[in-house]
Amino acid sequence: MADLPFPFLREHVPLAPLTTWRIGGPARYLAEPPAEKMPDLLAWARSAGLPVWILGRGSNVLIDDKGLSGLVILTRNIWQEIRHEGDFLVAGAGVSLPRLCKAAAAEGYSGFEFFIGIPGTVGGAVFMNAGFGPGDPRDTRAVLEDVGLVRRDGEVTRVPAADLRMDYRHSVLQDAGNALGDAVVTDARFRLEHPGDAAAIRDETRKHLADRKRKQPLTRPTAGSVFRASDGVPAAVHIDRAGLKGYRVGDACVSPKHANWIENLGHATAADVRALIDHVRTTVQKVFGVTLEPEVRELGGGG
Ligand SMILES: Cc1cc2nc3c(=O)[nH]c(=O)nc-3n(C[C@H](O)[C@H](O)[C@H](O)COP(=O)(O)OP(=O)(O)OC[C@H]3O[C@@H](n4cnc5c(N)ncnc54)[C@H](O)[C@@H]3O)c2cc1C
Questions:
Q1: Ligand 1 centre and the CA of 87: distance in Å?
Q2: Which of 110, 122, 164, 269 could form a disulfide with 171 if both were Cys (CB 3.0 to 4.6 A apart)?
Q3: pLDDT tens for residues 23-54?
Q4: Average pLDDT of 65-91?
Q5: Cα(1)–Cα(133) distance, rounded to whole angstroms?
C-alpha cells in the first residue's frame, strides 16, 4: 500500500456504521483533518482527481451501496470546540446538535431547545438549515450569526448568515454553480439573545424529546424525514392518505409510525431505499398530483 500524504487520512473505510440509516459502501479515502489543513487536503484531492464529500453524523444522507470512490471528510470526531464569546456561542462544525443545545442552556440561554432531538452536527445543520417544519421559525437560521467556511478552491472565509440565503431545509451551500456551493463549514457563531430560566429550558427540551418519542420511530435506523413538505403540507399527510404506511421494498419500509420516515428493517440497501422513494413519489403523484422532493441527500451513485 502506497504511503498516504496525510497522517489523518485512511483508506477503504466502511461508511454504513457512520450513518443513522446504517446503509452504504466504503469510502476510498476518509480524512479527519484539523481545520487548518483543509486547503492542503482539498488541493491534494484536486490534484488526484478525487471527488470530495463531507459527512457529519450521517443523519440526512443516503450513501450508495458501491460506496464513495473519492475523499470523504468526516467531521463528527473533529472540530469539537464550543466557546462563549460575548453575545455569541461559537461551535466547531463537528459539534453535535444536542451538545450545542445543552451548552446554550448551561450558559443560561434559550432558543436552542429545538436542536435537542436532531441527531446531526452543526455543519450539517447549517447546510440543511435544520429545524422544525416549513413556516415554523425554529430553525438554524434563527440563531445563526455567521460561519467559517473553506471553499472548494481552498479559500478560507467568514460569511454572514444572510449570505447563506437559508430557507426551509435549504442553504446556498447546496447550490452547485454558486461560489459558496459545496463549501465546507468549519465553525458557526450563534447569537445568545434570550436569557432563559434553567428549569424552563429543561422542561422545553424534555417536551421536545417526549413529542418525538410519541410520533417518530426512534428505535429503528432511519434518516428522519425523507421528503420535504410541499406547499406547506407535510409529505407524511400525502403518503399516509395514499395508504403507503408499512409498504416495503426489500428491508426498506415506510414507517408504520410516521409515513415520511423510511425504516431499515435490518439489511436494507441504498437500492431498496431508492426504489421505495421512487414508489412513494410515483404513487403520491398519481393519487394527488403532488410531486414530492426528497429532503435526504444522496451521496454517490450519481447523486
Ligand atoms: C431521528 C432523526 C430525527 C431528525 N429530525 C430532524 C428535524 O427535526 N429537523 C431537521 O431539519 N432534520 C432532522 N433530521 C435530519 C438531520 O439530522 C439533519 O438534517 C442534520 O442537520 C444533518 O446533520 P448531519 O451532521 O448528520 O449531516 P449529514 O447527514 O452527515 O450530511 C447532510 C448534508 O450536509 C452536508 N454537510 C455535513 N456537514 C457539513 C459541513 N461541515 N460543511 C458542509 N456541508 C456539510 C453533507 O455533505 C450532506 O450533504 C433528523 C434525522 C434523524 C435520523
A1: 26
A2: 164
A3: 999 999 999 999 999 999 999 999 999 999 99
A4: 98
A5: 48
- Could you give all domains of the chain from N- to C-terminal order, each with its CATH number? 9-74 (3.30.43.10), 82-213 (3.30.465.10), 235-299 (3.90.78.10)
pLDDT tens profile 108-162: 999 999 999 999 999 999 999 999 988 889 999 999 999 999 999 999 999 999 9
Closest residue by Cα to atom 11, ligand 1, is 130
Looking up cell 477503504 gives 12
Given the CA of residue 123, which atom of ligand 1 is nearest to it?
41
Which single residue is written with the C-alpha cell 462544525? 93
**6 Cβ contact partners less than 8 Å away, ≥ 6 residues apart:** 31, 33, 37, 40, 41, 44
pTM over 0.90: yes
List C-alpha distances in Å: 170 to 164, 165, 295, 297.
Answer: 9, 8, 9, 12
β strands within 49-123, DSSP E: 52-55, 61-63, 68-74, 82-85, 88-92, 109-110
Pocket-forming residues, ligand 1, beta carbon under 6 Å = 20, 53-61, 75, 93, 118-121, 123-125, 127-128, 130-131, 173, 184-185, 218, 222-224, 297
